[in-house]
Design a protein that fits this description.
The structure is a single chain. The chain is mainly alpha-helical. It has 1 helix and no strands. The protein is rod-shaped.
Length: 101
């Protein structure tokens, strides 16, 4: 048998530890709720905006690449048909004024 004084002490110690554990778990749960809902309310819109910004940057990069490719092909076309460089327009013999390159 456990003496009554020791039982009271043991009971009070267990009750105090249980109360502290309960308070800690409640506080931890509330903190976790606040942090997770805040992350959802702030993080999801931010992630969507960031993703949209990345898509816009990728589209702009592709447009610049297409534009530079079309400029390169335009300059190559000018070079092939004699508008650029040493080619130039000219009359080649009796062909009625066709280009010479």
């Amino acid at each position: 048998m456990v003496p009554p004084a020791q039982r009271r002490y043991l009971s009070a110690t267990v009750a105090t530890a249980t109360a502290w554990a309960r308070r800690g778990l409640l506080l931890g749960g509330k903190t976790l709720w606040v942090v997770s809902t805040s992350a959802l309310l702030v993080g999801v819109p931010w992630a969507l905006a960031w993703s949209e910004e990345q898509q816009m940057m990728e589209m702009e990069r592709e447009m610049r690449m297409q534009q530079s490719a079309s400029e390169v092909s335009f300059f190559l076309l000018l070079g092939v048909f004699g508008f650029w460089g040493d080619g130039g327009w000219g009359v080649c013999g009796d062909d009625g004024g066709l280009m010479c390159w």
